[in-house]
Amino acid sequence: MPRLPKPSPLRQNRERRDVGLVALDGGLALAPEPTPGWLAVTKADWTALWTSPLVSALLPITDEATVRRLYGLRDERERMMRGIRRARIVLGSRGQPRANPLYAQVASFDAEIRQLEDRVGLSPRARLQLGISLGEAVRSLADIADAIDGDSDAAAADLLLAYADAPAGEHGAEGSRVDGAKPRPRARRRAG
To answer: CA-CA distance, 48 to 65, in Å (whole number)?
Structure first.
């Protein structure tokens, strides 16, 4: 499982840029039309996605094809599952009972669907990795202070570490580092 990147102030290499997308409430005014041959449940899910707050992080011009492919796979998977529910056990080539071969196809569809969902940001972890936050993007300093028992200095340090783009070694008011760590003495080089 890949690790999440360090907060920007703690990074030594500043070349990596944060996306910092924030999904706003409301979604699109007009959702793209679903494909006509889809099942009703797929069409309802399609419309729900394009009217959700998540859609503000998507660009219909560039992302619609990927999302349409995802929902096409979901539609085919639902059709296969309906077939499996009708006949979970089928007769094999020699008349023996065996599991419906559609199970294997559903498993391969699930793998592809999972990858596309991660690319689009349809799971909480995928949204976190893409830098998409739903709802309030940044908590206020007062909210953070309340969360850590009213300690406004700790809240300011927490906010700075989480959201600011200050250098990692920047010092606070009392000479200590902003993150609360004590500065390490530098090793002296020996001449010679």
So the answer is: 17
Give CA–CA dist 147/127, Å, rounded: 24
Domain positions in the chain: 18-134, 140-172
Dihedral sign (CA 29, 31, 32, 37): negative
Q: What mean pLDDT, rounded, does the chain reach?
A: 75
d(CA 4, CA 192): 43
Q: String of b and e for 115-127 (b: at least 16 CB within 10 Å)?
A: ebbeebbbeeeeb
What pLDDT digit, counting tens, does each position of 84-93 carry? Answer: 999 999 999 9
Q: Which three-class secondary structure state does DSSP give residue 97?
A: strand
User: How far is Cα 163 from Cα 174, in angstroms, rounded to an integer?
Assistant: 21
Q: What is the model's pTM?
A: 0.56
Element (H, E) at 134: strand 133-134
- Percent helix, strand, coil in the chain (nearest 5)? 45, 5, 45
